[in-house]
Amino acid sequence: MTAIAVTGHMDLTPSTVSLVQGAMQELLRAYAQEGLVGVTCLARGADTLFAEAVVEAGGRLVVVLPSRDYRQVKVKPDHAPTFDRLVANADVVTMPYDTANRQAYEAANGELLKRADRLVAVWDGTPPSGKGGGTADTVEQARGAGLPVDVVWPVGAARGA
Q1: I want to staple 90 with a disulfide (CB 3.0 to 4.6 A). Which of 23, 37, 61, 64 is the partner?
Q2: Which is nearest to 110 in space by CA: 71, 140, 149?
Q3: Which Gene3D superfamilies is this protein grouped with (predicted)?
Q4: What is the mean pLDDT of the chain?
């Protein structure tokens, strides 16, 4: 069994979504035979694309929610049906924070990495912003811990505004 966590950008352009979907499916196909576990915070964008690809590959999902209020305050109405469908069929771990804030996100990212054998990063290579808890920070943390990182950023991929 292989546990793969995800980190990635939320602001993917519409054309990038299909590029990332294809790259994720190809990447995860190699792990499907050995028992795939996908670990995600299930944010909009990369996290959700990853979760969908894990389910499509026959894998099991573990969703790490950064806080008890995450669903209510951070999941936008247009993302809620997908979020709810994926959570309904996942093992859910909720971090011990009442509100979604930087500390909760950093703790959730740490939990993702603790549960993973490797990390998939849907990442354009932009360095850390200094705010903490972002994609580049998670990649840096994973690499520092010796966790293998697969960067998914297909040719032609872009972030939106």
Answers
A1: 61
A2: 140
A3: 3.40.50.450
A4: 94
CATH of the domain spanning 2-152 = 3.40.50.450
Take residue 71 and report the two structure tokens written for it: 């669903």
Regions of the chain with pLDDT less than 70: 131-133, 161
| Whether 110 contacts 139, CB under 8 Å | no
Nearest one of 159, 158, 122, 152 to 138, comparing CA atoms: 122
Tokens of 46: 């990369």
Domain parsing of the chain, residue ranges = 2-152
Residue 25: the pLDDT is: 93
Provide the token pair at 31: 């792990």
Question: What is the reported pTM?
Answer: 0.94
Write down the pLDDT at residue 141. 93
Query: Distance between CA atoms of 4 and 117, rounded to whole angstroms?
Result: 6
